[in-house]
Structures are given as structure tokens and as C-alpha cells.
Sequence to fold (737 residues):
Amino acid sequence: MEPKFSSWISNEKNNKVNEKYGAPAPYFRKLFSAKNVSRATLYITAKGVFKVFLNGKELCEDRLQPEWTDYSKSLNFVRYDITDKIEGQNCIGVVLGNGWYCGTVGLLNVRANYASSPSFSAEIHLEKEDGVEVICTDQSWKTATGKIVYNDLLHGEYHDFNRDLGDFSSVSYEDALFYPSVCSPAYDKSIREHTAEKITLMEQFEGKRIVSSSEFDIYDFGQNFAGIPVIKVRGERGSKIRLRFGEMLDGETLYTANLREAEATDYMVLSGGDDVFEPLFTFHGFRYMEVTVIHGKCEIYGVFARAIYSKLERCGHFECDNPLVNKIYENVLWSQKSNSIGIPTDCPQRDERLGWTGDVQIFCETAMLNANCKGFYENYLYCIREGQRENGAIPVVIPDVHAPWCEPYTGVTGWSDVCILLPYRHYMHYGDASVLRDCFEMGERYLSYCAAEWNDYIMPDRGFGDWLSIDDDTDKSVLATAFTAYSYGVFAEICRILGNGKEEHYRRISRKIKQKYIEKFVDEDGKILSDTQTVYLTAYAFGILGGEILPHLIRTLERKNYRLSTGFIGVRYLLPVLAELGRADLAYELLCSTEYPSWGYTVKNGATTIWERWNSYSHTEGFGDIGMNSFNHYSLGSCVEWLYKFVLGINYSADEPAYKKVELKPYFCYDGKIKNAKGKLQTQHGEIGVEWSAEGDNVLYVADIPQGVCAIFTFNNAAVESYRVEGQRHIYKLKRN
Fold:
């Protein structure tokens, strides 16, 4: 029996709406009996976000449910099995927050895009021998406001502990302050079950006080992350404390200029006893927290923080003997965690936090190698399908926020291609063809949109191009045409997999675009218009040109003193293309560099996550452009894909996806930058493990292959001297060639 969600309730008296922060968070409670129940299930959704309590306890550590959708199209609902948590007499409690529905969302600092206050609908299904009793939200649910004076995802949360309602979901609670709820308009669009991993409280960090002054204290949690503070404090009744959050310090002060319009500030007013501040409906991107006692006296005796992100199961691991590379890998993991909060976002700290499709397209391979993102990306693909415009274009941010600033970029290549490239890569990792079928119409409509945009198969000069490249601008028409050829080719592969007879049609168009690209953009010497690293990398990676691009690619590196100049788009292909064209030595050199611009440069300057810009900060130059300077931005972290696929050599096969057949194609390092590496990848067919060590020209390569998995070994810069098998372990002795 599925929920109907026909009855919605809200707090009618909760009308003291602050123009900037919204109204106080409403609390709801409902007593119910549950005798002779074989199964009890709670179904709940909200226009806003909710937190559920049952019989005086948090139901679970989920946060910000039912998560973000384009509310003009759909809502999520969440299902909880509460069978083991109920008794004869019970009380359910719900607190509502503004969330993305009526809080501040992205860039324009606009609040209440859909409504000024939240509401919700819930059903408790009690299964008994004689049928199912359904307890719905109605006016019998009582409501009140409590300690949460306001809450906003970007601006923060304010608690007044003098208004704390206590254990309001306890059966014995005296609810004299509560009054009847009122009916609220129902939701008339689609409501679907949210089955992906939920946003959850994860790792805990203890704060270390590093600055203490007469005005404020600053605590360091040792890691940049997305999360919430947990502060234990006692003091005079009415004392007021302010918490501000930042990713960096500027001397001995908190650096917040890069947050732009996001206030990222929490407040608490003390009750006079022991209070614990732990916000329910906000999160911050931070490493440092500034604590200011605005007035009164208090003692802070516990300073902690909890990371918050979708609870994705880790599936990949990598480590080597080079501490710099290990730190880069760890930084990428933390940026992935910090930007996997319901949907894949660009950054967790400033007034943005949007699902930029280009970032996902670039990073999704790395993400799926690090963690099981199957449900996470299926949810996002549903949002993409919802967001597709009538003309087939895909917005650059999903969920679509329908902002005027987005419109000129809707449908731009490199970003919108996510509608084809993400489903295909998802299939290669997980082997679920239903994703390809679900996304097929979306892909066809998008390619039709591209065909309407091009002039003789050449795409227009528009979009973001190779975003944030280093003084090396790539012509946008060149890049867009390359991406279109690539997407048509990948879509032909999707047609082959689905066996729908359309493969050759799309493959023929892909070949035609490549031909026109060469005629339009490549001169007699093989030089491509723009002559940047990125044009050669993408021309090779997308199958437009072959190994003849290598001299030009090397020339562009020489021109930059053998340093990268790629932006978000090109950086993903830099290390793989160099390795495939016989210059793995250069790939290792770029990976291990600590000179600007490089991954190592950010580590040398204190990074614990991946930065938006290579020079977001340096010890010598200070901070970069405050208008766009995130210190937690995973796009440039696509290099981790190379660690799995080219250093360890673990690759899926197009013949049998989901690692039923694994192609092991490592490229070894002989100059000592990485002397040994090891890692593993958990797949649905078992765990693939790899370990190798290099000494001089000799390499020992060991791979553990699960039973039933076909393994194909290709050694690109080494020759086999001996080989043996011990159970599931394949052992190769190799020599440099």
C-alpha cells in the first residue's frame, strides 16, 4: 500500500517571517497507539526539509530530507521502517526547516523561491492481521515553535535555548504550548520515493583553539569539509554567542571574503544551564570556526564538528610511496564528500552550492571509482531528465533554478553533454542498462538540439569553454564541436548496447562532425585552431585525431615550461593522453610537480581539499580572486581517475561492463617519483586488488582478480619476463621497454 500524501499541514501561527531568514522552525507532534502491529512504516515528504523524532529520540542521523528537487516538477518522499522503534503508546515528532524550498538558493541570494514557509505530509502505516491502519497528517497533529529562531542553508541557524521545547516527541510530554495544526495546500506534482543514499552526519572532528583574543577565539578542525558545529556550553541565561565559519585564515582572523553573500553564521542564546548547539537545517563549508561572545558570560567545554554528506559506500582505495600523491588523493576524496550532499555540487561554502553539470561530467569517473555512486547518480539523472528544456537543451545547473543568469548558457557543450556521458559511464561501472533506456529519449532530444545549433556540423562559439584555463584560451567553437562529435559517438555506443538499430545513424554523424572539425580547424601542419593543450588533448581523447598530435601537445607544454595550462575541461585528459602517447614520464612529472600551476602547488600551500583555482591561495601571493575562489571544488580532482586506471591499471571493458571483464593496463614510473603503488576496487563481482613496485628497470606487478572475472593484461611501458598464477593472484615480473 503506497502513500497518497493527500493531506498536508503547517503552522498557521508561524507567521513572523523575517524577510532575510524566514520564520521560526515549526515543531509538530502526534500521539498514536500501535498494538498488535506486524510492521510499521513511516512515509514522509515536505515542501522544505524535515527531521523526525520518535518516542523522544532522533529517528536516525539523516539530515535535510527529503533533499533537493526542482519543486516545480517533483518532490521526494522518504520511507522509514519503524517497526522495531514503536511501542504500545507512541509519539512522533517532526521539525521543519526551510531548506531549498523556501530558503536562500544559489548566486542571486533570493529566498522563498516557492513559498515563504514549509509544510509537510506524512502517513504511518500500521500493518495488522485485519488490514492496514493509516495515520495521516491532519489537524490532530499539534504544533508550536521552539528554539530554532531561523534557519537557512546559506546564512546559518539561530537557536534560543530559552525556547527549547525539550523532548517534545515523548509520549509523556506536557504539550500545553502546542496548538492544532492547520491544513495546508497539497502538492499537485509528482512525488517519488527517494531511494538513493541519504544525507547523513558522518566523521567527527575535535576543534583545536589556535587563536584567543579579547574579541574572539578561533578553532581549527584540521580539515576543510562540509558540515555542522557541535558546541557544548554553559553560561549566564541570555548570553549570546556567534559562530562564523571559513575555509582559511588571513593571519589570525577568519577569511570569509570568498563566501560572497553567504553569511555562514550561527547564533545561540543560552538558557542558563548546559546547552548543546547542533544545527538541524544548515551546513557550512569550513575548516575554521570563529567564536564570539556578543554579551554575557559562558564556558565552552566542548568544540566539535560533524561532516555531512550523502552516505556513499567507499569502493576504491589508492596509496603509494609518494606522500604528495597520497595527499592529492586524500584531498580529492574530501572534495567529493563535501560536494555529495543530495546532489553533486560545485562547492559547499559560498552563495552557490549548485549542481553544475559540467563539473559532474568531468568528475563522475573519479567519483564512481572512489565510491559506489549508483543510486546517487541515478537520482541526479532523474533530475536532469526533469530539467531538460522543450527544445532538448540541458541547463548548466541541475536542479534547474530557472535563474535569468543561466539562460544564455543553457545547452552549452561540455556541460549539457552530461545527459549522454553520465548514463554511459554509469552503465560501464554498474552494468545496469535500465539507466541507458531511461535516459535514451533525453539523449536523442539533446542531440537534436545540437543539430539545430550547428552550422554545417560546426558548433557555435558560446558557453564556458575550457573554464579557468591558465592564460591559454581555447576557441569555444573548436571545443564545442569536438564534444558534439564525441557525444554522438558515445550515443552510437549506447544504441549498440540497447540493440535498437540506430547505432550506425549516430556513428555516421559523429564521423561527419570529425571530418568537418578537421577541415575547419586543423591546418596543413596539424596545428589546431587555438593551439592550446586542451585542443590537442580533446582531439585525441575524442577520436578526431591520432598520435600525430603528440609533437604539438609537447610543444604547448614546452611553451609553458612543461607546466599545465588546462582548465576544468582539458585537465581530465592531460595525464591519460600523455601516457597513451608514450609520455607517461611527463604525466608523472606533472602529477608530482609542486610548481604553479599543479595539484602539488595547492598541497604545498596548505590545501586539504581540491581548490577551484590552482592559485586560490599561496604563502607568497595571498588570496586569489574573491569573486570566485572556492577552496573545496572537486573538478580539478579528476586526476584521481588516472591513478586508478593508469597507475594501478584497473579499467572496465566495453565488452562486459561492471568489471565482469577487467582490463589491466598500467603505466609504470621509472624515475623514482612513485616507486610502488597499491589499491583496490570493490565491484559487484568482487574486489580487484593491484600492487606494484619498481626498482630500476624492473617491476613486480601483482593483481588479485575475483573468481569468474576475466582479466586482460596489457603492459604499455614494460615487457613480461615471467608470469605465474597463485589462486586468484596474477604475478608478473616485468622489465622496462
In short: The CA atoms of residues 707 and 728 lie 7 Å apart.
